[in-house]
Amino acid sequence: MKLPPFEYACPATLTEAVALLAAHDDAKAIAGGQSLMPMLAFRIARPSLLVDLRKLSDLKGIQISSDGVRLGALTRWRDIEDDKRLAAAHPLLKAAIAHVAHYQIRNRGTVGGSLAHADPAAEMPGIAVTCDAEIAVMGKSGTRSIKAADFFLGALTTALAADEIITEVRLPVWPKGRRFAFQEFARRRGDFAMAGIALFYDTDKAGKATNAHIGVIGVGDRPQRLVAAEAALNGKTADEAIAIKVGEAAATAVEPQDDIHASADYRRALTGTLTERALLQAAK
Amino acid sequence: MPTKFEVNGKAVEVNVEARMTLADCLRHVLRLTGTHVGCEHGVCGACTVLVDGEAVRSCLMLAVQAEGSKVTTVEGLSNDADLTPLQKSFRKHHGLQCGFCTPGIITTAHALLTEEPDCDADRVREVLSGNLCRCTGYIGIVEAVLDARAAYKKGAP
Questions:
Q1: What CATH code would you report for B85-152?
Q2: Does the model's ipTM exceed the 0.90 cut?
């Protein structure tokens, strides 16, 4: 058989699930399994026990209120695509999720799974970091909330303790009229991004950009905000000349890696170009 | 682990190791070899089946996770009497050559057309981007799916 041997449990409550994770060394939670199953197939992951979260209905559902958008950890990409309210409640999320994987995978892959897996090129972690999201988790000692900026520690590495399960991600409220764009480049739509940019800003009465947030994925070992590029945009009117400057600032700010998909230089150039395009798209 | 689910309308009960994928369970335990296994890590789409009506990759799901679900494989989308409209359309448009990827493409197309019988060519291409075909070059496949739309529209015979 392709996968390494493991025990399997399918608890009915979150408390039970946490207790199972706490009681076993190398236990791992499985939600949609769209990242974990390939890891098992390659035997990169060899858990002693898989704790299936599929019966935990508390972790399902999308809630939209005056506080923002709360996505239950078991929210699938498909659920985000199908939720008509999100077009107004969080258009950047909607735009980014359109790039996640392929049709069949979107029927099973989950928000919580993507955050916990922490692939540097994944869209959801990028949106969480760009939008100052809070990630709610529950472990043996109770619940806590982790800022997305503190959650991703490196490639496939998070601040999640071994007994903790992500319960939901909270995205702050999205004001009307906010400018935004999501741009990513992959050889085939749905494949992992060589680089991607999530960007938003608000405008003051004079039409100048304020509160710029620019996040990058697929470059470096985790999603990150590009503070220098944000500074280059704040206080300016987004036009072609500013887009070029912000793009340059973004390209300078990243520390890309070479790998089989692209060289570091290529990724740096891509970061600049995508930032420029994203800003022009947002300003339109 | 004892696991009960439904396959192509029939209740089944299997006793499988937790680590067995749904794809392997369908092929090796239930002997439904219409579901093909290509890459075994969720890239090629050949193993696509329907779980509760939704297209999923059966190599990225454990058999034990199918407990209580209704699974439909490519075998469940044909009948012994004659070709279904989707099958006819694939024959007419030469939508297959070696046939390895075909089960995954048929199941995916069926899910898409059931939900979105008015989908356009761009949507068909986007959805089929998750299915790798190394022979025909997709043109015939996309035409076959588009031509089969009529049969999925409301009130179609």
A1: 1.10.150.120
A2: yes
